[in-house]
Amino acid sequence: MKSCVALLCLVGFACALDKSIVSGILKDIEKIGAECVKETSASEDDIAQLNAKKVPTTHEGKCMMFCYAKHFEMMNDDGSLSDAILKKWDVIKGNDEDVYNKLVQVHNTCHSKTSLKADPCDTATDLAVCSLEESSKLGLMEQFA
């Protein structure tokens, strides 16, 4: 599984980064994706939606977003938002500080805009949608033309 709506901005701007960083990100996405399919019981249709870069419509598909968000430390197990991923992005800062600064801006904006829902899968999906919108505004999605 090479793409996930929640991580599109990461993969999108990763094209400007060192190939070893991009390769590591894609390997993580694929490995975590396989784990998340088992955890959420997402269907092939759910996975097809994600791979088509579409917002999931089923609960299982939305829970894939939550699973990814937990694994990438954007959200905590209890469904609250987390800043832990910022430390992991230091490798990006060392490679492309402009991309890093834009990523932090997206993170901060979406954390302030995303309200916690009763279902953390819905929160994760809202966070992903915000990340896509904010990444696009900052030109981080242009590689997906």
Automatic annotation (TrEMBL):
Biological process terms in GO annotation: sensory perception of smell
Annotated Gene Ontology MF terms? odorant binding
Q: Which keywords has UniProt assigned to this entry?
A: Signal
**Tagged with keyword Isomerase:** no
Q: Note the superkingdom of the native organism.
A: Eukaryota
* GO CC term, one of those recorded: extracellular space
Residues making up the signal peptide according to the UniProt record? 1-16
Q: Which Pfam families match?
A: PBP_GOBP
Q: Which PANTHER family match?
A: GENERAL ODORANT-BINDING PROTEIN 19D-RELATED, ODORANT BINDING PROTEIN-RELATED
Protein name in the entry: Odorant binding protein
